[in-house]
Each structure stands twice: as C-alpha cells, then as structure tokens.
Design goal:
binds adenosine monophosphate, globular, five-stranded parallel β-sheet, alpha/beta, 2 domains, inorganic pyrophosphatase (n-terminal core), 13 strands, binds manganese (II) ion, 12 helices, Diaminopimelate Epimerase, Chain A, domain 1
C-alpha cells in the first residue's frame, strides 16, 4: 500500500456522493537516510496530545536515538496525560519548548504545522522539515518531505512503516501499539484495516504486556472522569429523530472537578454508540463563550467536512474544531451543517 507510489495526487470520486475528494499519497522515504547527517533532530505533535500523538512521538524518539546515537534527538509536546507514563521516554518529553538554535531536522507527527502549538515556530526554522500524518484535513503536508496517507488508521502505523526493523525492540513496539490502539478504539473503528491487524500482530511479538497497557491507557477512568462521563450522558440531548446527540460540559463543572481536557476523552465515543445515532457532538468550555467541539459519526456523515467548515479538521468519522458562542449557538450551527449532509444522504438513498 505505501510503497512504489509516485509522489502524486489521486482523485477519487466517492461512490454514492457527488463529492470529489483529493487523496494524497506520498512516496515512502528512507528516514535514516534523510536524517543521517543531522546533528539535531526535533520531534513534535499536536496540541492536547492524544495516544497516537504521544505513541508516535516517543516511538520516533526511541528509534532515532537508537539508530543515530550521534545525533541530539529531542521530543517536544504539551504535557501529555499521566497514563502515558508507561511509555519509555515519557520523562524526556520537553513541555517547555525552550530551544537554542535551529534543528537540522524537525519531524512533525499526527498533524500539520498549525496544530503544533508552541513548536510551530521551531518547525518553521528547521533546516529540513518532515511531516508524517493521516488527517484528511492535512491535504498536502507541511514539510519538505511529506508522508501523508488518509487511509491509514494512525500516525503510529505510518511511523512504524518508516522504521528499519533491525532497530525495533519491545519498548518501541509498545509505543507504536499504543498509538494504533488509541486511534482505532482498540481495533474497533472503521479505520482498522487488515494491515493494521497484521502490524499489531508483529508488534506484540516483541513481547510487552499489551492487556495491561490497554487497560491503563485506554479503559481505566478516575472517579472524576467517570463522574464527568455520567454527567455528560445524563444531560445529553438527542435530536433529528434520534440521529444526532449533543452534550456539553460547562466551565463551572470543569472547575468543580478540577478537570482538564484529558479527563474528557472518550465521552464523545460513548455518545456515538447510542442506538440509532449517526452523529455525536461533545463540547467543553475553553473560555468565555468558546467551546472545543468533538464530532464522531457512524456511517455516512463526513464530520471532517463539518469541522473544516468551522476552521477545524480531522478524519471522516472523527474530527474537531473550536467554535465561539453559547452552547445553543454552537449546537445550532453544527446541526445545520450535519443536517445538510443528512438531507443529501436521504436524497441519494
Ligand atoms: P478530538 O475530537 O479532539 O479527539 O479529535 C478527533 C480527531 O480530529 C483527532 O484525530 C484530532 O487530531 C482531529 N482534530 C481535532 N481538532 C482538530 C482541528 N482543530 N484541526 C484538525 N484536526 C483536528
Ligand atoms: Mn492525534
Ligand atoms: Mn492520529
């Protein structure tokens, strides 16, 4: 799938729809060859790093340190959730973003440059920029070298594809596996391919405690996290004949539980599996009249298009954006965009 493709643009007419989507597939490149003369290699991912972002960045960090021991390798990320402490190298993550000089190589993972947050400037100033990502909203890649494939489950899967197997070990395998597990919802979402499962099989052969890792990083919830989930479910509203569901956590509730965005992960996925629901919206207050929105869909609503309309992005079945307004403004504006797609879908069927 990844190999042998020329750097090109493939136009793929989506069956059933009238949308023409551009799918970019970039040629796989030789990572070590591109990094071999670099004295400094910096790695970073998106703001509010999730499992794929942390797993991919730390896998890349461990791999490059091992394969290129002479190079100074650094990893920058906003403070990740403590659950990822089980990944080797977690303590070496630099959340201060304080750097001196320019990087010879900067590798941006699981996002395009506008979502690098404090690392964006460092990325811009690097001598060679590499971008590895799988977001539909990242159409072209923002690097001098881009490895972007929208059809792949996770950036971790793409990163693993770039690794020379001779440097693989159990710790690197675990980090890659965590990335894949988080972005596929433990191999349940439609982005899971036969290749994803083949890679997962290869990874667990390196030998690490994957059931414990899945429990610790994905399933386990603190008491406060469960309370917040409970409140979000209790206060959710279904609309469009039960095809849509929306819920929000306001500033007061976040403060009451002393909660951070990391405590809200998974809520939107629980809303999505409400029977009959096609599209789930979860939002939390990020400021006065400002909400971070998470969108998920089941079968036909392209939530990346909905998020893109509001300046965000993501994938066809999982996307996000930030919108200003009251809860009702935000829900109304989103539902208009979702309804347009639902109507198109009804007309086609
Ligand atoms: P979330 O609902 O925040 O978990 O995001 C779902 C997916 O959309 C993840 O893959 C995110 O990386 C992506 N995403 C969220 N917000 C944005 C954004 N503003 N721009 C681009 N991608 C986003
Ligand atoms: Mn991510
Ligand atoms: Mn991802």
């Amino acid at each position: 799938m990844y190999t042998g493709m020329q750097e090109n643009t493939r136009f793929e007419e989506l069956k059933k729809g009238f949308i023409v989507r551009v799918v970019m597939i970039m040629e796989k490149f030789n990572l070590l060859e591109k990094c071999k003369d670099a004295k400094s290699i910096f790695i970073s991912g998106h703001v509010r790093p999730d499992g794929d972002c942390v797993g991919s960045c730390l896998a890349m960090y461990m791999y490059l340190r091992k394969a290129l021991p002479e190079a100074e390798v650094k990893v920058f990320l906003e403070e990740p959730s403590e659950v990822f402490r089980c990944i080797k190298g977690f303590d070496e993550i630099d959340s201060t973003f304080a750097v001196e000089g320019e990087a010879d190589v900067f590798i941006a993972l699981d996002c395009e440059k506008s979502r690098l947050g404090a690392a964006e400037e460092i990325f811009e100033n690097a001598r060679k920029r590499i971008n590895v990502d799988h977001h539909v909203s990242n159409e072209r890649g923002c690097g001098d070298i881009n490895y972007i494939d929208h059809s792949i489950s996770s950036t971790a899967e793409l990163v693993y594809d770039l690794f020379d197997r001779q440097y693989m070990d159990a710790e690197i395998a675990k980090a890659v596996y965590i990335g894949i597990v988080h972005d596929t919802g433990i191999f349940r979402y439609s982005n899971t391919s036969p290749e994803t499962l083949r890679i997962a099989a290869e990874l667990i052969e390196y030998g690490f405690d994957f059931p414990e890792m899945i429990d610790e990083t994905f399933c386990e919830k603190t008491y406060a996290q469960n309370q917040l989930l409970g409140r979000a479910l209790l206060e959710s509203i279904v609309f469009m004949n039960g095809k849509c569901i929306v819920s929000a956590i306001d500033k007061k509730t976040l403060d009451f539980y002393n909660a951070t965005p990391k405590d809200l992960e998974g809520i939107v996925n629980q809303l999505r599996i409400t029977k009959g629901v096609e599209c789930a919206i979860f939002m939390y207050a990020t400021g006065n009249l400002e909400y971070k929105v998470s969108l998920r869909s089941c079968k036909y609503v392209d939530v990346s298009k909905v998020a893109a309309f509001f300046g965000g992005g993501g994938h066809v079945r999982a996307a996000g954006c930030t919108i200003n307004g009251t809860f009702y403004d935000v829900a109304n504006n989103l539902s208009k965009q979702i309804e347009l797609q639902m109507k198109e879908h009804e007309e086609r069927n």
